Amino acid sequence: MIDVTDRHCRYFHRLLAPQARLYTEMITTGAIGHGQLPRLLDFDAAEQPVALQLGGSEPDALAYGAKVGEQWGYDEINLNCGCPSERVQKGAFGACLMAEPQLVADCIKAMQDAVSVPVTVKHRLGLDYNESYDFVRDFVGTIYLTGCRVFVVHARNAVLKGLSPKDNREIPPLRYDVAARLRDDFPDAVFVLNGGIASADDAVALMDQFDGVMLGRAAWHDPGVLSEINQRCWPETPIGPPAEILDQFAQYAARQLERGVPLRVMTRPLLGWMNGRPGARHWRRMLSDPGVLNQNDVSVLAKALALVGASGEGLAR
Do 280 and 274 touch, CB atoms closer than 8 A? Predict the structure, then answer.
C-alpha cells in the first residue's frame, strides 16, 4: 500500500471505522535514516491505534526505525515480510526475507530490544510455487521463539519472478486453510488474515476463524466496506451519516491546508466512497478535477456530496 495509506487516507478511514487498527504504508529504514521525518511519520492523534510498518533487513537499522516510530507515538511496529515488488527485492527485504527466517528473527529481536510497544510481522504463506506447509510453519516458529505473538498472514504465496505486485495479489491461490493451520499450531499467538477479503460478509465470516482481518486494496477502492464491517461487529459504536463524516474530514482538511498540504493530496482516498450510488461518477469527477482542487477550498467536498443521490443517505457503510 505504498503511496496509498498515507496519513490523510488513514484519517478518513478512522472516521469510517472507529474500532479498526490502522497501518501505515511501508516505510523503509533508509527513508527513516535519511528522510524528512515529519513528512514520513506525522499522523493525527485521531488515527490511533495506528501501526508503523517498516521495510528493511538490517537489525540495527530496523531497531533505529522502530525506536523512532515509538518516539513518534505509534502503537505497534510491524515488519513487512510480504511485499513481492522488484524494487523491494533489490533492497533485500519484503517477501524475500521469508527465505531467511533466522535473519528475520534477529531483526525482530533487535526491534523488541529497542521499543516497549508490540513488534509484529506481516508475511506470505510461501515463496514462488513452494506450497509446503512446513515452510511457513517453520518461518512462523522461528519468529515465535523471539516472543513475537502477532502475525498478519497474507494467505497467498509471493512469486518473486514473473509476476507484478498486482498479479501477486490475484494469481497465487488463496489458501485460508493453511493460514488456519498456523493458528492451530500456535494457539497463543494472534493471527490476522489478509488477502482476497472484498466484502463485509467475507470479513465477518472470517473473523470467526481468525483473530482479525486486514483489508488493503478493498478499503481503497470501496472505503464504505470499513463502516459496514464496523457496524456489524461493533453495533454499539455509532457511525455518522455521510454528511457528518464529510464535515469532519473537511475540518481536518482545513487544518492541513493551513500547514501547506494541497487539497488534491487529501481527496484521493474519498474517490471510491460513493461507488454504486447515483451521482458517483460526478462525485469522482469533481474530487479529482485539478482545476477545482487547486483552489484549495474545502467547500468542494459538500458540493460533491450534493451531486450524489439523496446526499449519500442510506449509505449503510
Answer: yes
- Domains 7-225 and 242-312 in one fold: no
* Averaged pLDDT, 70-92: 87
Name the CATH architecture for the domain at 242-312: Up-down Bundle (1.20)
Q: Enter the C-alpha cell of residue 292.
A: 477545482
Q: Fold for domain 7-225?
A: TIM Barrel (3.20.20)
- pLDDT at residue 238 in the model: 87
> How far from the centroid of its chain's Cα atoms is residue 15's Cα?
15
Determine contact, residues 111/62, Cβ cutoff 8 Å.
yes
| Rounded Cα gap, residues 26 and 97, in angstroms | 15
Spatial CB neighbours of 68, under 8 Å, sequence gap ≥ 6: 32, 37, 41
Q: Rounded to 5 degrees, what are φ and ψ at 111?
A: -70, -45
Angle at 69 between CA 224 and CA 193, to 5 degrees: 40
| Predicted structure pTM score | 0.93
The span from the CA of 312 to the CA of 284, in Å, is: 13
Distances (CA, A) of 2 to 58, 198, 200, 265, 306: 20, 19, 24, 14, 32
pLDDT in tens, 219-241: 999 999 999 999 999 999 989 99
Taken in order 227, 221, 82, 109, the sign of the CA dihedral is: negative
In the residue annotation, 107 being an active-site residue is answered as: no
Residue that wins the pLDDT comparison between 267 and 35: 267
Domain chopping of the chain, boundaries: 7-225, 242-312
C-alpha cell at 94: 519484503
Pick the catalytic residue from 9, 81, 83, 96.
83
Q: Name, in order, each residue with C-beta under 8 angstroms of 94's C-beta and a sequence gap of 6 or more.
A: 26, 55, 80, 81, 82, 83, 84, 85, 88
Report yes or no: 93 and 57 within 8 Å, Cβ to Cβ: yes
What span, in angstroms and rounded, lies between the C-alpha atoms of 197 and 219? 10
Q: Using CA atoms, how far apart are residues 191 and 210, in angstroms rounded to an integer?
A: 6
